[in-house]
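Narrative of activities, Objective 1.

The group set out to show that a structural description can be obtained from nothing but a protein's sequence at a throughput compatible with the screening campaign. Below is one input-output pair from the validation batch, recorded exactly as produced.
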Amino acid sequence: MNKFPWIKPIAIRSSDEAHRQASWLELFVDLGFVLAISSTTKIFETGFSLDNLLVYSGVFFSIFWVWNRFTWYATLFDNNDIPFRLSFLASIFCIIGLSASIEEISANNYNHFTFYYFIVECILLYLWSRVWRKPQYRILAKHHLIGYSIGTLLIALSLLVEGKTKLIFWLLAILSEAIGPIVAWYRMRSQIPVHTSHIIERHGLFTIILLGEGVVAIGHNMSFPLSNDTFIPSAIAFGIIIALWWIYFDCGFGFSTNLSHNMLKTFIFGYGQFFVFLALSAIDISLEYGLHFALNPEHSELVNVKAIENMLLAGVAGFLLIMSAIQIIISQKNPRKIYLFRLACGVAVGLGLFTKFNLAFQTIMLIVLTVLILVAINDTYHWENLKNNSQLSK
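Output recorded for this entry:
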């Protein structure tokens, strides 16, 4: 008889569980990331310089990296016992701390951000130490623990250095933590079950957070009474968010794939999704600030509006190209008519970064919306044909 009934055995979850969905705890933890993602936009309050863009990318990745590791741990080892629950609930407080300290980063003060990140690292080390105690999972846990331990040490040591040396410590920490799982999968000969629909749903929920930030950005810039000057650009921006949702969920990761026992597909999906998320985040920020300066032209002299326009174009191009590349590699069905058109549209939008036309932000949004609508129509048409043909062949 178990002396501690609130502690359950650690066991890897089956990839064949029926109807597995995101748990209430996972959804609750995601609320912390809503705050964290929203807080990252503060970095651009001082302008759209290259330095701010690099800082933003680093902070965004750091937040994604926390979410990514908790998500994959839960996918594999969620046993819903008290230690598991308390660990994930404690992570919410750390995420709140990370969010609150982002504003300090603009003043080159990384101490509080590093402190809360260090606590997150310790929580993850504890979770994986529980897995390590099971002999059958020791190889998997060992390499996660080695990678995470080195990363945790480097992050702690980064508090003692300044300038570019601090960045080097963080980069080495992330590299160590990213390599650990890869080595673990390689040593396990990829024999790790992954519940594909659950992990795709979890990434879809993070996408919802990012699309929600786009909706919030539009709301921040709407004012009443509505006029054509306010309504039209807001409606176009909302159309962009709808089109992105449509492409991702209706025609995007609803494809047929199986990540279980497949190292290449798992890491291309798991790590590649960061770039899809970064592209969506860039779109959110460009809409937030682009709408503001389009509706308040008297403020546009205070910022590089061209940089905001380029962020929108780069975000949309990146979204189309990167998501297509991931799908082509991991999907079991690759209809050329979908991907060729989507890739062509992504390249076309990307080429807009090199044009010298001086277009209004509203016009650029309208062009982007038109492209996304065409992609959504093409995707929907060919996916439906593919589904119908598959049903007829059965």
